[in-house]
Amino acid sequence: MGEFKVHRVRFFDYMPSAIRAMAFNSRTERLALARADGAVEIFNFADHYFQEKIIPGQDGRAAEALCWVGQRLFSAGLNGEITEYDLENLKPKYTVEAYGGPIWAMSSNGEGTLLAVGCEDGTVKMFEILSERIQFQRNLERQKGRIISLSWHPSGKLIAAGMMDMIRIFDAETGHSTYRLLVDRGFGPSRCKEVVVWSIAFLSDHTIISGDSAGKVQIWDGLTGTLVRTHPVTKWDVMALSVSPDESSVLAGTSEGTVIQFQFITATMDQQDKEWVRTRTFKNHSHDVRALVHTETAVVSGGMDTQLVVRPLLDKVEKNTHESALHKIAFPHRNLVCCAKKAGLLLFQFSDHLELWRIGESDGHGKPGDSLPVKRKPEKLIQLKRTGEHHICSSALSPCGGWLAYSTLSVVRLYRLQYNDNDISITKVSKLPKELRSVHQLCFSSDSSKLFASSSHSSVIVVALNQLECKYLHTLRPKSGSVQPVHLLCASEDGKWLATASTDCEVHVYNLCKQKLHCTVPVYSSCPTAIGIHPTTSNLVVAYADHQIFEYSLIQREYTDWSRKLMKQGLHRLWLERDTPVTHITFSSKNPAHIFMHDTFMFCIIDQSLPLPEARTMLYNQMTLRSLPEHERLRQSHAFKICKTFKHLMCVRLLEDHSVVVVERPLLDIMSQLPAPVRQKKFAT
Amino acid sequence: MARRQRGEAARSSSGKLTDEPSLTLPDSDDEAPEEVTFEDSKVEALRSMKQALDTARRKQKQSEDEAAKEETGEQKSKKKKKRGKAAHTRNLKGNYTVTMLKDQLSTSFQQQTAEEFIQSRLYGPGSCRTTSNELLSLENKRAINKSAAVQFVKKEWACKEKAKAEKLKKRWIHKQQIPPC
After folding, report:
1. From start to end residue, where is composition biased (Basic residues) (chain B) (predicted)?
2. Which of A13, A66, A194, B180 is least surrounded by CB atoms within 10 angstroms?
């Protein structure tokens, strides 16, 4: 059953972008994250840290600061503009020029009525937050140096601003600077360089905590304007600070990759007075930590090593449970690789270009685990650069390899590919229907005659493909009036069904022959991460962010018996404790009872004809089964056959000749191309 | 009037002296030197100062004119080039042209300076940085079974360094083989 020829692909040079800023919305439990290439991502912390939304970036528009105001998200960057995002249509709503030069910091007051931005020209500009836009109100007293960091006092009456060599406290009503706190420069050679106050926090008891480029965290008394305590924390810069919601704990992120916690506690048992004491040090990053968020129960950090790390604090969660485990999110929870099953082609999506590759061939045979000789090497056929300033949002390749499409926030492009012996020609389809605009997901039908594109309000646009032209057919809309974007699109092999999943956890199935909504899967509490339609039984298989799997019969419009059996027995504990969500579901034409799925660390074949694993049995039993004699194996097998040989998986697909394509991106290859880390002198190296 | 008389008197007296063919100074010590009044010297001084100022002004004006000519010449050639790119050019009276440049020039310059500031603070001199290879090789060097740096362990990495190391190795072996004979 389980012998496959595996095409092990490691030539996808995917490079994630560094994390520049983060902001947490405690009411909706969403984390907004801004990357160096300008992309903004939203993670749902209440749903297993699933990456719900990605707003692609734009050239020259990286965010330096992110800020939630209620449900609205604002960002400001070095291009001097403040942007508000439309989270339902995944694009910037509008931008406002601040006219102060590059913006370094942004913060909103407690009530959500004012937005303060710190600019290069030394002004702190106040913007009024209105219902549909923001409006410039006034400037605070202009200073001689640039404003690098900002923090409002919770009362909204004072603002602390970190600048070069000093911190200024402003009265928000009069706009005048009341105190000037001078920050010491570093020792030795760094004495001649100005010290930059990279981050600052203003607490309700008027304590100001600052982190600077000389590597110290300083505690100041904002009422008297004096220094209370200095904590030299690192030799390099302290780049980020974050205060817990109850103000009892502060985190400082350094260029070394460490996050240091300070807690407001009594230093010794018998003392009455509380003070800020350095308690824990977390080393979860190899490169600079540029952004930090202190939630009630966890430390969320991100930086130049591009990984988002969530470290739950062990004094706030139960120890040794799945809840207290460290989470590292290194890869997007989306497919960046498209595979043309019939043609053996792979399409790699980068932010600024697409690459089309033909996978190699091998004639040899061997034992399981052998490396077969390569007869024909994989070759790059096309490298297609995008048009416009916006980064590529989604891309698709038709199963026959004859059509290629990609979309950005401003354009949608469709190309016809023709293969003549060893030559390949690419022709752009010039006149696209005007309905094909601001499209989030693209998907070709299995016979390559139609292109499906998800648009605003969870609708799907269907266009017909014909030789060299493209005609609009119709738009499919759900009944529920959902406004959230569609993030998953799947067309069935027989061309009859189209399934969509949106970020408000709704899964809709459309009948393509009748051109209308067929059914809606009962709403589940978690967001779907992958969907697939079985080619013969027409069963819809959905994998959710909480690792549950459901199978829904489209013909009977109810869950299948197998799915009910699985729900009743429950999934194995180790399956539910996996770190990464399933990103693709596919089926085998040779074995209709098999469901293929994969996440970043494993790929799994679920055999519906075998019994489900019990809670006490071993889940990863492939190695033991191999060592058992033939008759024993059948007794001990269970439905979940998991292979953990290949990491980190970006794509696993089944080709028509029943070989498996596995696209891996080793983390080491990514790390070797990151910017320079700090030099730490270790003994004996 | 008095000045004129004195001036004339002075001139006439100086004229007398020079008319004589033999330029012998008067012998008598009793004769006082020529009386050059304060007024005269003041006039003389003012005149020479005015002359100097005039020449300076003239020279300045000359150089300004030259510079202006050069500039208009340059601008014209620049604008001729820009005319190809920007559609917003207008010819005004005389030799002047007005062109509307793209708005982003100044903002992108400021953005670039800001980015360079961060870059120099984090990665510039004095920042004590190392390479990714060194960071990843720490484990190899401190393990119980020590091995080489990651760039030599991994097959596809650092081909140039590997080739260099190979050459050095060959050279060293060659050197070791020669002395014994």
Report:
1. 77-91
2. B180
Query: Chain A residues with CB inside 8 Å of B134's CB?
Result: 679
- At A453, list the tokens: 């594109």
List CB contacts of A28: < 8 A, sequence separation 6 or more.
A71
pLDDT band at B76 (very low <50, low <70, confident <90, very high): low
> Binning pLDDT at 50, 70 and 90, where does residue B11 land?
very low
Residue of A nearest to B137 (CA): A685
What residues of chain B, 131 to 170, have a C-beta less than 8 Å from chain A?
Answer: 131-138, 141-142, 150, 154, 157
Domain boundaries, chain A: 403-523, 524-599+603-643
pLDDT band at B10 (very low <50, low <70, confident <90, very high): very low
Q: A213 to chain B: nearest residue by CA?
A: B121
A3 three-class SS: coil
Distance of CA A647 to the CA centre of its chain: 18
Q: What is the DSSP letter of A192?
A: G
Residue range A391-412, pLDDT digits in tens: 999 999 999 999 999 999 999 9
**Residue of A78, A190, A208, A92 lying closest to A153 (CA atoms):** A208
Exposed / middle / buried, residue A481 (Cβ in 10 Å: 0-12, 13-18, 19+): exposed
Radius of gyration of chain B measured on its C-alpha atoms: 42
Instruction: Please tell me the predicted confidence (pLDDT) of residue A79.
Output: 92
- The pLDDT value recorded for residue B105 is 63
B129/A684 Cβ within 8 A: no
Contact with chain A for residue B110, Cβ under 8 A: yes
pTM: 0.85
pLDDT category, B138, cuts 50, 70, 90?
confident
Q: What six digits make up the tokens of A554?
A: 């489209």
**Looking at the complex, does the CB of residue A237 fall below 8 Å from at least one CB of chain B?**
yes
Q: Is A520 left (phi over 0), alpha (psi -120 to 50) or beta?
A: beta
For residues A626 and A613, the answer to whether their CB atoms sit within 8 Å is: no
Write the DSSP symbol of residue A418. Answer: E
Which of A78, A213, A255 shows the shortest C-beta gap to B111?
A78
pLDDT band at B88 (very low <50, low <70, confident <90, very high): low
Residue with tokens 């030069």: A101
Q: What is the ipTM of this complex?
A: 0.86
Portion 247-266 of A in contact with B at CB < 8 A: 255
Q: Compute the nearest-CA separation of A79 from chain B (Å).
A: 6
- Tens digits of per-residue pLDDT, B16-55? 444 444 444 555 566 667 777 888 888 888 888 888 888 8
Question: Between 3.40.50.300, 2.130.10.10, 3.40.50.620, 1.20.200.10, what CATH number should domain A403-523 receive?
Answer: 2.130.10.10
A524: exposed, middle or buried (Cβ count in 10 Å: 0-12, 13-18, 19+): middle
Inter-chain residue contact B114 with A685, CB threshold 8 Å: no
* CA-derived radius of gyration, chain A: 27
Are the beta carbons of A685 and B138 separated by less than 8 Å?
A: yes
User: What are the chain A neighbours of B126 within 8 Å (beta carbons)?
Assistant: 189-190, 193
Q: Is B128 on the interface with A (CB under 8 A)?
A: yes
Nearest to A640 by CA among A622, A655, A654: A622
Q: Token match 């980064």: residue?
A: A391
Q: Which two tokens stand for residue A143?
A: 């200073």
C-alpha dist (Å) from residue A337 to A207, A350, A378, A646, A651: 50, 9, 16, 16, 6
CA distance B129 to chain A (A): 4
Residue A141 has pLDDT above 80, yes or no: yes
| Residue linked to tokens 């698709």 | A396
β-pair type (A30-35, A19-25) = antiparallel
B41: amino acid identity, one letter: S
Q: What are phi and psi of B63, to 5 degrees?
A: -65, -35
In DSSP terms, which residues pair with A426 in a beta bridge?
Answer: A417
